[in-house]
Amino acid sequence: MRKSNIFSKLTYLFSLVLILTTSCSGNTTPGETIKNGAYFITDESWDNYSRIWAESVKHLIPDYNDDFVQKVINETITIEDTNGINLLPPRRKLMWVAVIDKQMTISDGQRKVYHFIRENDKYYGETFNETVEFKLNNDILKIINNNMETEYYYDSSCMISDDVLKLDKPKNIEYSCGGEGLNYAFFKWDCTMDDGLFGVGVEIRKNGQEEFVLNKIEYPYHNTYVVQFERSDFIEGTNMVRFRNLGGPNLTNNPLQVSKFIDSEYVLYEVIVDNNDGVLINEVE
Description:
The chain has 3 helices and 19 strands. The protein is mostly beta strands and 285 residues long. The protein has 2 domains: 5-157, no CATH class; 164-284, Immunoglobulins (Immunoglobulin-like), CATH 2.60.40.10. The strands form 4 sheets. It has an 8-stranded antiparallel barrel. Helix 1 (5-21) crosses helix 2. The longest helix is centred in the N-terminal third of the chain and has 17 residues, at 5-21. It starts with a helix and ends with a strand. Mean pLDDT is 86; it is low at 1-30.
């Protein structure tokens, strides 16, 4: 997904700071059974996470000092504090983990769903092209990701819903071809909290193939999905692309509870590649 240069650089710098300024234990021996329900970031981990984020944007803040760091921790940052740049500081209420039936959603503003397994003395959460490690000790869940260990405490007051809810499929998708020689295919649509919870699965079936293959998982940016393909993602002839909203455990308020959402139906498109005429897109009913 395309983002502004500033946002891309910030994401890269934040990742570097995480790697350089944090460390984690190599021992991830599970001590207890991971309970279904909700886990919320601890005070210590929130303080650490906020400080790391503040350090990652330090170069953009002319009057950077400890007061700025405290504002990040206390969630009182204003646009004036960030030199007029919308830096999207972390929000504590978005830092949670929801668990139901061997699935774990880790939220930090963006929600990623992992299927977790145990191998020997370690727990792993796996999603497309990504793995996290974690351990549990006295109802404290420790997630190890990007060389950072973040702790979440179990909230026994959070209810667990028996309902299984199916997400709506993506809708109102705009598509176009562009670039020199029409070598790119673009898809764009808006999402809401009801249908864009955990990202969208993007699958391709190339001309002549029998099976769809998961190409990537995209996440919304400012409530909008943008999916871009290059001509090299396909082969000449009629290729098929399909999208579906991905499900998983989700935390909702009023009342505070964890509910399970399952994947939506697919939306299907033809992407026709012609070596002479470029790329053509057709929606398949």
